[in-house]
């Protein structure tokens, strides 16, 4: 917290200020949705195969919205060097950094979101064009409409509501960090924190990049799984051979790969890799019917794993094959394949270091390689799991703001996915409380075709954050 010149106190009571916040969020909602739609029209994919000019345009559009708020002392578009990998040392994608110092002993809050988006995939899988936002019913459809340009706009709209309620001369310190490459691995994130540590110092950090329990119930994410991904190449032959001439005596790489991958799961689909741990946690009620409805699980297909469904998603490890390099069906020939490569993605339960999980996975694969197949593991990437200490003051304030905005108490949830950069925030700012919030719901389909934002959820998420900011501004 910082101490500077005293300013005259706001003459309105806290109740009056919060009522003004509510009114501002309500009246400004059409404008906020229009601004969000403008951001969605920018195809800001940070992946190397896409035009980086779109990410730059997106950063500039976000910076313009932030400058219009009129309350930040600095608003900059900044880049930092990529930390690791083949591109180490090159500049990452543009991020927006805005700062406003705290006054009169008030806390500082860091607001994080990201303006880059996933690739659209096949346009034919969308009911409308990915980058042409469309409202159907109570949902706004478009790539990034939920993940995470809605998070960006939740920050902008909540700050705007605070300004309209108390004026520009408030005491709360705010740092705004809108990243430009979260969907591309946050490759310069760690260096960005180091390069801008002083500007990003905060008492609480709001990460608006998660989901809610449903469209009527808010959630605070208190557990995230870590992740380990790598490329596995299985080789059994020096060169391809005729399957008719030598099949039955020579193991081909495809067969070896299938046998090896199958060894990583039990018959019920539970992970069977010794050394991968689970986290003991209580989970809310969640039925198989709800799982089917939210995932599109086919009627004849059963769920996998053991334990409560949410413990499987939040607190147990997974092993998934997310890609394979092999001859296509169209190009298949009667050939024994000499080598097959797959991409393996493992989610790591909270409490287990990612490096320990990788060691367990590597040991299992090498111990179970069939017929002496040669294994090569490369392109390893790891992210740490995260557990929130829910006893802190910022968690209490956030939960109360959610309850008041939604009219329903929030649920503590885990997320099956990973946000690896959280561990970077914990490392650089160990005293800050981290609040993982979001604007999504189970039907948002982030990363998938027909991604969408429920506008009622969005409104309540903005109100939750705006009330939180108003209360932090009054916090002694």
Structure description:
This protein is an alpha+beta fold. The chain folds into 2 domains: 299 residues, Zn peptidases (Aminopeptidase, 3-Layer(aba) Sandwich), CATH 3.40.630; 139 residues, Alpha-Beta Plaits (2-Layer Sandwich). The chain contains 13 helices and 18 strands. It has a 6-stranded mixed β-sheet, with helices on both faces. It has a 4-stranded antiparallel β-sheet with strand order 11-13-9-14. The longest helix is centred in the N-terminal third of the chain and has 27 residues. It starts with 13 loop residues before the first helix and ends with a helix. 45% of the residues are buried.
Topology:
Blueprint: H1 14-40, H2 52-69, E1 74-78, E2 95-100, E3 108-114, E4 134-136, E5 139-141, H3 149-166, E6 173-179, H4 189-195, H5 197-200, E7 204-211, E8 219-224, E9 226-235, E10 241-242, H6 243-246, H7 253-262, H8 288-295, H9 309-314, E11 318-325, E12 335-336, E13 339-348, H10 354-367, E14 374-383, E15 386-387, H11 393-406, E16 411-415, H12 421-428, E17 433-440, E18 452-454, H13 455-473
Parallel strand pairs: 3-6, 3-7, 7-17, 8-16
Antiparallel strand pairs: 1-2, 2-6, 4-5, 5-18, 8-15, 9-13, 9-14, 10-12, 11-13
Helix pairs in contact: 1-3, 1-13, 2-3, 3-13, 4-12, 11-13
Can you summarize this structure?
It contains 13 helices and 18 strands.
What's the count of strands?
A: 18
Question: Distance N terminus to C terminus?
Answer: 10 Å
CATH topology of the largest domain: Aminopeptidase
Helix content: 25-40%
Mean pLDDT score: 94
Q: Quick one: CATH class of the largest domain? A: Alpha Beta
Q: Judging by the overall fold, what is the CATH architecture of the largest domain?
A: 3-Layer(aba) Sandwich
Ranges with pLDDT <50 over ≥5 residues?
1-9
Enumerate how many helices there are, as a single number.
13
Tell me the fraction of residues in β-strands, as a range.
15-25%
| Main beta sheet | 6 strands, mixed
Backbone shape = elongated
What Rg do the Cα atoms give? 24 Å
**Which class do the helix and strand fractions yield?**
alpha+beta
- The CATH homologous superfamily name of the largest domain equals Zn peptidases
Number of domains: 2
Domain Peptidase M20 dimerisation: 223-372
Keywords: Hydrolase, Metal-binding, Protease
InterPro entries: Cyt/Met_Dipeptidase (IPR051458), Peptidase_M20 (IPR002933), Peptidase_M20_dimer (IPR011650)
Pfam families: M20_dimer (PF07687), Peptidase_M20 (PF01546)
């Amino acid at each position: 917290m910082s101490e500077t010149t005293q300013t005259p106190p706001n003459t309105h009571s806290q109740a009056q200020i919060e009522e003004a916040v509510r009114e501002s969020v309500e009246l400004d909602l059409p404008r906020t949705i229009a601004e969000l739609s403008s951001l969605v029209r920018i195809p800001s994919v940070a992946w190397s195969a896409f035009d980086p000019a779109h990410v730059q345009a997106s950063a500039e559009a976000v910076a313009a919205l932030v400058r219009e708020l009129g309350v930040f002392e600095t608003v900059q578009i900044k880049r930092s060097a990529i930390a690791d990998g083949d591109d180490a040392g090159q500049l990452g994608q543009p991020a927006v950094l805005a700062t406003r110092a705290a006054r009169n002993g008030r806390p500082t809050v860091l607001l994080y979101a990201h303006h880059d988006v996933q690739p659209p995939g096949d346009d034919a899988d969308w009911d409308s064009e990915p980058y042409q936002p469309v409202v159907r019913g109570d949902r706004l459809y478009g790539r990034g409409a939920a993940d995470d340009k809605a998070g960006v706009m939740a920050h902008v709209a909540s700050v705007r509501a605070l300004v309209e309620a108390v004026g520009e001369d408030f005491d709360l310190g705010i740092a705004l960090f809108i990243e430009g490459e979260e969907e591309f691995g946050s490759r310069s994130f760690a260096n960005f924190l180091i390069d801008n540590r002083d500007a990003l110092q905060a008492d609480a950090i709001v990460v608006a990049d998660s989901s809610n329990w449903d469209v009527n119930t808010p959630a605070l994410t208190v557990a995230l799984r870590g992740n380990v991904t790598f490329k596995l190449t299985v080789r059994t032959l020096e060169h391809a051979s005729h399957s008719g001439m030598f099949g039955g005596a020579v193991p081909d790489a495809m067969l070896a790969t299938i046998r090896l991958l199958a060894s990583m799961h039990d018959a019920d689909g539970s992970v069977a890799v010794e050394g991968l741990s689970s986290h003991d946690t209580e989970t809310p009620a969640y039925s198989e019917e709800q799982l089917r409805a939210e995932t599109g699980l086919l009627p004849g297909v059963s769920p996998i794993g053991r334990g409560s469904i949410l413990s499987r998603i939040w607190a147990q490890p997974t092993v998934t094959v997310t890609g394979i390099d092999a001859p296509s069906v169209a190009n298949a020939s009667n050939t024994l394949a000499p080598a097959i490569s797959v991409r393996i993605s493992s989610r790591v339960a909270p409490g287990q270091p990612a490096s320990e999980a990788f060691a367990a996975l590597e040991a299992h694969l090498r111990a179970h390689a069939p017929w002496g197949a040669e294994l090569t593991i490369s392109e390893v990437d790891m992210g740490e799991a995260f557990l929130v200490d829910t006893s802190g003051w910022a968690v209490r304030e956030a939960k109360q703001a959610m309850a008041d905005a939604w009219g329903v108490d929030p649920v503590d949830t885990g997320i099956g996915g990973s946000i690896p950069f959280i561990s970077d925030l914990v490392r650089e700012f160990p005293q800050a409380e981290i609040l993982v919030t979001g604007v999504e719901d189970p039907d948002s389909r982030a990363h998938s075709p027909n991604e969408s934002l429920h506008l009622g959820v969005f409104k309540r998420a903005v109100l939750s954050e705006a009330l939180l900011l108003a209360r932090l501004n009054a916090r002694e």
